[in-house]
Amino acid sequence: MIELLPDSIANQIAAGEVIQRPASIVKELLENAIDADAQQIELIVTHSGKSRIQVIDDGVGMDPQDARLSFERHATSKIKSSADLFDIRTMGFRGEALASIAAVAQVELKTRTREQEAATHIVIEGSEVQKQGECAFPAGTSIQVKNLFYNVPARRKFLKSDPVELKHIQEEFRRVAMAYPEVAFTFTHNEKTLFKLPAQSLKPRIVDLLGKNWASFLLPVEESTEMVSIKGYVGKPEKSRKRPEEQYFFVNRRFFKSGYLFHALKSAYEGLIPKDHKPVYVIYLEMDPAQLDVNVHPTKQEVKFENQRAIYNYLKVAVRHALGKFQVMPSLDFESENRFFQGDSGSSTSSKGKARPPQPSQSDEDWAQFLEGVRPQPDEERAAGEFILSSKVQPDSESEGELFAEPTISAPYQIHRSYIISPIRSGFLLIDQSLAHERILYEKYLKMLEEQDVQTQRELYPTTVEFSAGDAQIFEQMLPTLTSLGFDIEPFGANTFILQGLPAMGLLDSDGEQILLQLLDDYKNDQDNQLSIDQNVSTMLARTSCIKKGKELAAEEIEHLVSQLFACEEPTYSPGGRPCFITYTLKDLQKKFSKKQ
Ligand code: ADP
Ligand code: MG
User: Fold this and answer.
1) Beta strands 192-197 and 184-189: pairing type?
2) ∠445-446-451 over CA atoms, to 5°?
3) Long-range contacts formed by 69-78: CB under 8 A, 24+ apart
4) CATH code for position 41
């Protein structure tokens, strides 16, 4: 026998979806006030919301008819058709909250629009209207909810202790107040004012809500693309903890949770915080509501993004940028002055500390001797930011001792922003900074290809590149190599490709399209295919991303460049076959200075 449930029970069941605890009511009432364009919102709670929750706002108010309708299930002024579901700009849209609250509590509404003389007064208990009339009330709305679950004892019994319920309420309050700093809020519990927030800007609002001690630990995040704008703050790494509470994502000012985006954020902190720690953050995304589905669950903490992969990448880049900008981590990935080192971060330790013995025609021993004085200092010393002179060499009476009793070998230095003079035991080297760096990068890229050890740096703006039909075909052949170098390129049909990311090796600020066109050109020009695609691409990339003449180098950069060059397999020549350095021996010099004959 199937029987229809009485309305009162049906309403209570439906209410269970939306109203789980006092904090759910706080959330719904605060959001309604926001949707009503309130500038000032007052939250009054007693007994952790178990006996009373009241929200008073100075928003648009309701006329008598709307006031009565607002308690009907699925009554909303916020959407009209299903199409509107894809363009939600308000916090509410289901038209369920007031109906649900009225089903399980005693509710008193006072509301007045600016046009109306008298306010509407409605008392409703367990979905039954008890009283409807007029009263005096300023423009705006007050909704008071008393004795939650008075008619559903089973649910009332399941409410948690007062401190726990109050904590939930505070959390809901925080989320709304954080999203609307331009709105003033007060929050009173048991006659005690917990928060009194003026209309303010974002950072003071966050600090007021999280605590004064946060002021100096917040790093601003700000990045925007056509698709999404990201702003907010992340905590300095030292503020990370195993279970931080301060983790807030908002999209279009709606709080949400997302393990996926949290992962992006956490990975931006990689290496900066212990593995079992979590960063703190208050991040606001703004985007076209059409790209977003907020209709996932009645309590609306989950959202779906149309293109969540892209948002993941943008967020990660934005946060890394924020951390880098404030020198929380070596800003190598982003600061153009340092781009020269960018590609080295991965392998630098090994090649700096213990240079791989070079293996050109000369034997290792020859090289070791030749390069005496060029070898780098240990990493620790370099890390301290000190520039340490290359080791002093003891005279060796058997070789050059005859020339100078106590040869000292000083640090390499740059001249004319183009060449590096690097003293060696037997004289000095004149190094072409550009060709040397080209060699270093070339070998690095080849090695990356060999070891499949690549990292991609997403471009903030994907670029579309279009080729002629013939070129597109050639380009397709190059795609696998480009991909294994860290290019993220998607064929897009009709000879078009979308470039989403470049190898994380110094190309971030470069013009991606230019690089691809150049690569294609080089490949086509290598008519008899002397070089493999790998070699071709590495050559071209090295040429594009190497430091150029005219670039002033810091002492450490010079030292690094020299030691890296001599850690190469073939330091003598650039990939294009030009010498990377010229050797001047003391004997040569002596000859030059000898008397005219
Ligand atoms: P929803 O917010 O999803 O539309 P609610 O049940 O929360 O549904 O509210 C129903 C309707 O009551 C709203 O659409 C709005 O028109 C009106 N309303 C509720 N609270 C307020 C308020 N504080 N000020 C003005 N109008 C309100
Ligand atoms: Mg609502």
Assistant:
1) antiparallel
2) 95
3) 70/98, 70/109, 71/98, 71/99, 71/102, 71/107, 71/109, 71/122, 71/124, 71/127, 71/129, 72/99, 73/11, 73/14, 73/99, 73/100, 74/99, 75/99, 78/35
4) 3.30.565.10
CA distance 436 to 575: 10
Contact 243, 249 (CB under 8 A): no
Please give the angle made by the CA atoms of 343, 346 and 350, to the nearest 5 degrees.
115
Q: Which atom of ligand 1 is nearest to the CA of 28?
A: 7
Question: Is there a domain that residue 345 lies in?
Answer: no
Give the Å distance between the CA of 296 and the centre of ligand 1.
20
Which tokens hold the place of 446?
């080849």
Query: Does residue 538 carry a pLDDT above 80?
Result: yes
Tell me the per-residue pLDDT of 469-488, one tens digit each, with 9 for 90 and over: 888 888 888 888 888 888 88
User: In angstroms, what is the span from residue 93 Cα to ligand 2's centroid?
Assistant: 7
Atom of ligand 1 nearest to the CA of 99: 6
CA 43 / ligand 1 centre spacing (Å): 17
Position 3 scores a pLDDT of 81
Q: How far is it, in rounded angstroms, from Cα 425 to Cα 72?
A: 91
Q: Is the pLDDT of residue 371 over 50?
A: yes
**Which of these three, 301, 325, 349, is where a domain ends?**
325
Instruction: Indicate if 93 and 215 belong to the same structural domain.
Output: no
Specify the ligand 1 atom closest to the Cα of 93: 3
Minimal-distance CA residue to ligand 1 atom 2 = 92
299 C-alpha to ligand 1 centroid (Å): 16
* Ligand 1 neighbour 93 (Cβ under 6 A): yes
Atom number of ligand 1 nearest to Cα 95: 8
Number of domains within the chain: 3
Instruction: Give 59 Cα–ligand 2 centroid separation in angstroms.
Output: 14
pLDDT higher than threshold 70 for residue 506: no
| Same domain (yes/no): 314, 257 | yes
Q: Angle 430-434-435 (CA atoms, 0-180°, nearest 5)? A: 75
Ligand 1 binding pocket includes 77 (Cβ within 6 Å): yes
Spatial CB neighbours of 327, under 8 Å, sequence gap ≥ 6: none
Does ligand 1 have an atom closer than 6 angstroms to the CB of 68?
Answer: no
Mutate to test the pocket of ligand 1, among 32, 58, 91, 144 (most ligand atoms within 8 A of CB): 32
Query: Which residue owns the Cα nearest ligand 1 atom 21?
Result: 32
Read off the pLDDT of residues 311-357 as tens digits, 9 standing for 90 and up: 988 898 899 888 886 654 433 333 333 333 333 333 333 333 333 33
| CATH at residue 287 | 3.30.230.10
Q: Which ligand gives the minimal distance to the CA of 62?
A: 1
Q: What is the pLDDT of residue 365?
A: 53
Average pLDDT over residues 129-155: 95
- What does pLDDT average to over the chain? 81
- pLDDT-derived band at 416 (thresholds 50, 70, 90) equals very high
Is the minimum distance from the CB of 127 to ligand 1 under 6 angstroms? no
The set of residues, in sequence order, having a beta carbon less than 8 Å from that of 270 and lying 6+ positions away, is none
Q: What type of residue sits at position 76?
A: T
Return the DSSP state at 54: E
Q: Which domain holds residue 156?
A: 7-200
Q: Are 97 and 18 in contact (CB under 8 A)?
A: yes
Q: Is the CB of 112 under 6 A from ligand 1?
A: no
